[in-house]
């Protein structure tokens, strides 16, 4: 069986045009590995493929969740495998493209059998977060699972809550679960990570943010809020939307919000690269040294 092509890399590096070009060349469909493009109504801020691009190449795992739903790496891995199974039965080719390192790690390397989310525990911990802040949750985690606490930054409330939730559900520490044998499928994956020098990548990030704002990022955010979705939804508590919400609430002005989006997107890109550097099977391709995006698609098609 040929390895499954996975095109990854930091935000704005050029994953989408390479994936589209390659998919057209080999007659493949695209499975998205983006943790935010799964949500309906969030189009501009997640840089979803355009309608014309999606009409040209069929995409999977886009636009199927409400903005207040919780999605996880484990669920992504299961969903992606289900899509691949179906396409295999139909005799269709596919490639995976996206920048969510945790999701790709779950798919490629497998996951331990960690318990799923529990709504009651989540609500309890969310209430504690609102009442006492991230510090109180982090102190709780240090008492329950010191090893996991060392790996999680004190301000990362999402991972802190998840680690506490796992212990409350199973009585087993997250750090212990992560050492258990992982569940994998029988597929082999070819992980190609696109990269650029820092300054060119940062310029592309600035251009992308300016384009998002011009296309209506703040208006899109306001529309989703008017639909009744809470501003602390996981999908909205992300780069681009949280700064837009601050602007909508009058906490900052438009230019400052745009500047913060650029700054936080640069930081996010650095975190993405850190994830991919921790995946030893990754093949790194420097876009600017490889003749550009079109040449990369041609190279991957050989």
TrEMBL record:
Substrate binds at residues 11-16. GO terms for molecular function: ATP binding; tRNA dimethylallyltransferase activity. It catalyses: adenosine(37) in tRNA + dimethylallyl diphosphate = N(6)-dimethylallyladenosine(37) in tRNA + diphosphate. The keyword ATP-binding applies. Catalyzes the transfer of a dimethylallyl group onto the adenine at position 37 in tRNAs that read codons beginning with uridine, leading to the formation of N6-(dimethylallyl)adenosine (i(6)A). This is tRNA dimethylallyltransferase. Monomer. HAMAP family: IPP_trans. Its EC number is 2.5.1.75. It is an enzyme of class 2 (transferase). Pfam families: IPPT. ATP binds at residues 9-16. Its cofactor is Mg(2+). Belongs to the IPP transferase family. It comes from the Bacteria. The keyword DNA repair does not apply. Keywords: ATP-binding, Magnesium, Nucleotide-binding, Transferase, tRNA processing. The record marks 100, 122 as: Interaction with substrate tRNA. Residues 34-37 are annotated as: Interaction with substrate tRNA. It comes from Candidatus Edwardsbacteria bacterium GWF2_54_11.
